[in-house]
Amino acid sequence: MTDTTTAGLRKPDSEDDGMSPIARSGAGGTLAEAIRVGLADEITSGALAPGTEIDEQAVAGRFGASRTPVREALRQLAASGLVVIEPRRGVRVAALTANDLGELFELMAETEALCIRLATYRMTAVERVALQMLHRQSAPIVGRNDVDRYDQHNRDFHTSIYRGSHNSALVDHATGLRLRLAPFRRAQFRGEQRLQQSHSEHEAILSQVLQGDGEAAGRLMRAHMLTASATLAEYLVAPRG
Amino acid sequence: MTDTTTAGLRKPDSEDDGMSPIARSGAGGTLAEAIRVGLADEITSGALAPGTEIDEQAVAGRFGASRTPVREALRQLAASGLVVIEPRRGVRVAALTANDLGELFELMAETEALCIRLATYRMTAVERVALQMLHRQSAPIVGRNDVDRYDQHNRDFHTSIYRGSHNSALVDHATGLRLRLAPFRRAQFRGEQRLQQSHSEHEAILSQVLQGDGEAAGRLMRAHMLTASATLAEYLVAPRG
DNA sequence: ATAGCTCATTATGAATACAATAAGGCGAGC
DNA sequence: GCTCGCCTTATTGTATTCATAATGAGCTAT
């Protein structure tokens, strides 16, 4: 954590070397947006661990900007729940209690259940096929026990289901929840058989989707998410949870 | 809308007359927070109609503050969906399309269904009784056809159910959704028999809760919310929805 | 020696100043 | 007469400066 050069964007005191000043690469085009994305990455990736204090000036220096856009970025991150702001006391990466985590995982499970239920009834034929293919492509990943690749695949799978609900408000809600929980899912597939188990559960869910039973798919999805969270909880005993 | 003195806080160019400088009365204690609350009120109450452009400087003047806290407030409002920010183009009160509204109402309905389902299994005896009493107290309001009072009661009823889920993440989510939809619910109880119908639906939901059938309560709640949104939609034909 | 108070320091909250972009108007050319 | 382009202007984005509150250290008194 001492080496926080990870997201150095504009190097301070260096003339523009022709590279696009990140604002473009960031997102909409504003510095604040770019900083928000950068900080969110650092938090979700674990580079900034939960509970870490965030110094506005330090962040500003790191990103080669002033405090103003940094503050805006931090407020937005607070709104999404990734950081916590105590007025006049500073900002820190959200450190959730075990209870908070449980509540969030429950909401996540119910939300995903809702997504798959709606998706069962609303996905187009193309979407259905795409989801099947996505699932099939993960088989060799499971075989190789490639955790990183499977993690990426898992994200894609669930995201496809969000989209399948054909409700963008729901997609945003589910995506936001996933982002918020990201810092706490680092050990998600650590267990020996977790990849295999996750894959099987996906298969069962997919099966119900193809049979058109959204309720059953929802129940399976809820169980799938709660299983994952329970497995995860085993690795969260030590922290000040 | 020309008379926007509604939320005048610090009158500009008037020496502090001993009154607490609103920062205290606002919320946490910062000006930005107070402005956020003030603007949110104006938006949800309809004083600032959907689609209205918001000028940072004008808001700053109105609240007797500088642009800095106003910008922070606006960013937070954007995060909650009440306003939309187009970089370099300005801020305007969120103007949702009919499709957006439909998606939000669906999410709201499903969220409320989830709340009542969980609440059915988790409310304490005290909470159960309180909810019953709250419902009973609304009977005379319905009798008098007192729309404003019933609106307040309705909020309390639903909020109590959120809390009954005993999941604060879910409470926040549901509350946020309700806030976001508030600007579009102004004509909610305009129909002749709407109060009576709403009351009956509440009664049916409560009945299932007391019988311990969370699933049934959830189905009724979903229908209740969708009925309300459908009724509401009748009044949203004219606007640029 | 310890507890409480005061003062200095530092970081956040807010205001002001500066820069850059987008929009609108005016003029010129086709 | 219409359209395209430049220029002006106003508003947003960013930086800098100022104010204020919280924190910690050091001192004093009990």
- Largest interface here, residues on each chain? A-B, 25 and 25 residues
- Tally of helical runs of chain A: 10
Which CATH C-level class of the largest domain in chain A is it? Mainly Alpha
The fraction of residues in strands of chain A falls at under 5%
Largest sheet of chain A: 3 strands, antiparallel
Structural class of chain A: mainly alpha
User: What quaternary form is this?
Assistant: homodimer
- Span between N and C termini of chain A? 21 Å
Helix content of chain A: 55-70%
N-to-C order of helices and strands of chain A = HHEHHEEHHHHHH
Describe the structure in your own words.
The structure is a homodimer of 241-residue chains. Chain A is mainly alpha-helical. Chain A is 65% helix and 4% strand. In chain A, a hairpin with a 3-residue loop joins strand 2 and strand 3 (90-93). Chain A is built from 10 helices and 3 strands. The model of chain A is unreliable at 1-27 (pLDDT under 50). A 3-stranded antiparallel beta sheet of chain A has the order 1-3-2. The A-B interface holds A 28-30, 33, 68, 71-72, 75-76, 79-80, 87-88, 100, 103-104, 106-107, 110, 114, 167-170, 173 and B 28-30, 33, 68, 71-72, 75-76, 79-80, 87-88, 100, 103-104, 106-107, 110, 114, 167-170, 173. Chain A binds a DNA duplex (30 and 30 nucleotides) through helix 4.
